[in-house]
Design a protein that fits this description.
- With 415 residues, the chain is α+β, with helices and mostly antiparallel strands.
- It has three domains: 139 residues, no CATH class; 108 residues, no CATH class; 122 residues, no CATH class.
- It is 26% helix and 29% strand.
- The chain has ten helices and 24 strands.
- Strands 10, 17, 18, 19, 23 and 24 form a six-stranded mixed sheet that branches. Strands 2-6-5-4-3 form a five-stranded antiparallel sheet.
- Strand 17 and strand 18 form a beta hairpin.
- Helix 7 packs antiparallel against helix 8 and helix 8 packs across helix 9.
- The longest helix has 27 residues.
- The radius of gyration is 30 Å and the shape is elongated.
Amino acid sequence: MENNHHNHRCADQPYIIQLDNDYYCLTQEVINQNAELKIIRRKDWRQIKQKFLSLENGVLKLAVTSPENKEGFELTIKIGKDKLHVSCSCGQPVEKLCSHAYAALSHVSYSHVDSGFFEKHRAGGPVELALKHRKHFRIRQTNYNTDVEQNEALGSIYKISAEDPPDSVINLLKLKGTPAPKIAVKEETALSYLLMCSSWRTLPFLIPAEAVLNKAGNAPKGFVKYIQTADDPMLNGESAICKKCFKLMELVKQLPGTIEDAAEGNVSLLEEVFQLWKEVWPLVKRQPFVLKSEHWLWRLLKQKPRKSVTYPVNISNIVPQVQFELIDKGAYYRLQLNILINNAALTNYDFCRLIIFHKDQAYLLGSLRDAAIIELWNKLGGFLTVFKEHFDDFEERALFELSDNYFVKKYSENH
């Protein structure tokens, strides 16, 4: 029911405040619009004491006390996306907000931009979830706000964290998935190749380099230069692999540094990059000196490679398997991603967008979809927490389709 600003009402009857937008945004300007001038000018309730009483289904109750503790009232606020229903136990006759409600709302808003207070206290929001599952959260209530800190073991929380994994999962599952070819190791050559990896700037690429070998001739002890032209004398007899290396670098320069961003911008170009990796992988496997190195800026390729950030790897023709495991943690499920080599889950691996490094082995992932899913789960911290009250929704939005594409241990067996 809409407010009637021409007649007095009892303050214990709900008064409706229309918010700035449809996402719990309350500013001091909106509060002032919903209070009479005499209420705004009152000074006796400026410095109030406020205490959290309860929060259930988006209905927040606060105790509001005057500075001298002479008077105290209970404020009830029903929180909606686009409106608040506010009532006060004082029962005073008012047209809009009473002085106690005005003071309390100003207290939690405390600025001309939204403080995020009501978004936190919304139905099913962080505060309500933390109150329901206290052993998994730390709650600290101040005179102004309620701060919620989650246990690190929860990682990203479905319905609470900023990321929306179900939408990301559905989008990433649209990418093609194909196995990598298996090629046997061939005879060695004197040329070295560097698998260049960046945490976020670029997708991985492969570049030849002139290496200085140790006395035994079985490992590089340093480098002379990166090789970036096809007529370099070091490339004698290796034109096929080097042409693919140079083409790969050219394409990678045109794409952002994550699978998700690249897929959104130009999926066909991303698929071309992965196809080149599949073609160059068996070729580079034949080389005796293949190393992983770090990439920062393209202009640094004019200098010589840094031995301190470079270490040898073996190119494997084994294609990593991507699986999930649904672990019951009591109040919530943990959906954990596992990467398997020969049916054994890897630990402490290094993910480089399209490539997995584990110990001294380098594995090319079997598909862009696998790479994108691993990238997303790494972004989430390696697993997703789904509280049981949200499981049916998550199952319908994402888990059914995820289990159609990947084996989900402790779930796929029964579905």
